Amino acid sequence: MSGHRAGLRGRTRSHGIRPSRPTRLTAVPLATVLTVPVLTAVLVAGPVLLPPPGGSWTESGASGAPGAASWSALPAASADEWRDRQYWLDEYGFRDAWGTSQGEGVTVAVIDTGIDADHPDLRGQVVGGIDVSGAGNDSGTEPVGEMAEHGTLVASVLAGRGNNDAALRRAEEERRSAKATPTPSTLPSGETTPSPSPSVTSSTPTPDEATGAWPDGIVGVAPRAELLSISVHLGASNPGGPSPEDQIAEAVTWAVDHGADVINMSLGSTRQDWPESWDRAFLHAEQNDVVVVAAAGNRASGTLTAGAPATIPGVLTVAGLNPDGTASWDSSTEGISIGVAAPADPLVGAVPGGDRKEWAGTSGAAPLVAGLAALIRSEYPEMPAHQVIHRILATAEDAGVPGEDPVYGHGIIDAAAAVSADVGAVDRNPMDTIADWIRVHRRAEPSGAPTPTASPSGEPAEPTSAPDPLSTELPQATTPADPAPGLQPALVIGTGLVVAGLAGTAVVLYLRQRRSPER
């Protein structure tokens, strides 16, 4: 492991100790959980809505649902103050990695609520997109759904370029000040004349030569990567649109067909299995050598164990960390499908309309890892997806119990090492493969559904069935006990209640138990 994190922030780690549990789970605002039929799809955002630096929020039931979050009117921080809060750039090796790679030449698809491509920190970063929900615009750049800001937050920490708006304003103010109070100079005749006003461009900042990033605002971990914005709407307020499972299948397929090298999915569900339409989509990604990264989920949102797509073989699932580098209770979860852990609480990111916000959750941890995959793919353009994933896992700092565990996975990301270390080759994805899973498990299903087979074009045949719908009855909320290692029933918080999800079966994650290659 590189030494870039030594001594930073007084970080300490307790190996072999489970994440400490607060006295109670923090209530999550209704808008952070999107309940839908069949799959209870959840945008894996922060467990609580956090204020901007210097801000505050209150809980009030006056507007309806108990615990609804409201923002107090406080001055916003300047763009460069937000940049100063991106501790993960130094502490997890990203600045060191930028000396080798900044993600140039790599395209990352963000399957989320849509990206505000006009945000100052994201100008020029979105090169394509689509809306698959029926609620957004054709380019996928109109944020949709109950958490419309979610996709922009995700995109900014992944591939933001920052901005120079504040610096331009400072330069203009300096120019005006100098013009208003000129310094006289003496001519040979004894007359005086004002000295020329300084040029605006003389003090105007330019992008950083190494990263192409501007000095203010949010900079992503892969600032030279390009983004595809694929907007999905997973909430109940989109009754005329496609089902969530159909949106996800179409989104993944579209991303692959339009050149994505990496796909980020900061969303999840309350069940460990998935519809057969996802078999085809994720197999398509696997067959086309695309790295797929997914958020594990957050306990404070009711997710006590990772759900699909984080449980799909081949997907790199990301858990969340506290500021001290230990596993977060609120902003993470656990499960044998977790591959690696990254910062989740607190984070800062861009929101539609040009503003920024502090937030938390594995929704933010996942794009940090997706950005890391982009750095690797940029530095090693011929490297296959399974080897990219292996590099991230093999260079991670071990944490928790020795070796792989359901809290940290293979450990905590080290971006500098992942990009530059000498890592041996492997011949298969350490997170297993969806192709093997389909061959073994879909054929074994008693329903008689045919096993997906390749068409002449190399794509699997259209699936013929979907899982039974998840019950939407809402029992009274209870405080869940500290989960034991391994699989646990999934929970989701909605309308202030906790919904018991379906327990994952061992057969769903069977192949994941065989994914520990030598490092």
Summary?
The two termini are 13 Å apart. Helix content is 22%, strand content 16%.
What this model shows, in words?
The chain has about 525 residues and is of the alpha/beta class. Helix content is about 20%, strand content about 15%. Strands 5-10-4-11-13-14-15 form a seven-stranded parallel β-sheet, with helices on both faces. Strands 1-12 form a two-stranded antiparallel sheet. Helix 6 (about 245-255) runs parallel beside helix 7 and helix 8 (about 360-380) crosses helix 9 (about 385-395). About 55% of the residues are buried.
Helix/strand layout:
Layout: E1 42-43, E2 57-60, E3 68-71, H1 79-84, H2 88-91, H3 94-98, E4 107-112, E5 126-131, H4 150-159, E6 161-163, H5 165-180, E7 184-186, E8 192-194, E9 216-219, E10 226-231, H6 244-257, E11 262-265, E12 267-268, H7 276-287, E13 291-295, E14 316-321, E15 338-343, E16 347-351, E17 355-359, H8 362-379, H9 385-394, H10 415-420, H11 434-444, E18 491-494, E19 497-500
Parallel strand pairs: 4-10, 4-11, 5-10, 11-13, 13-14, 14-15
Antiparallel strand pairs: 1-12, 2-3, 6-9, 7-8, 16-17, 18-19
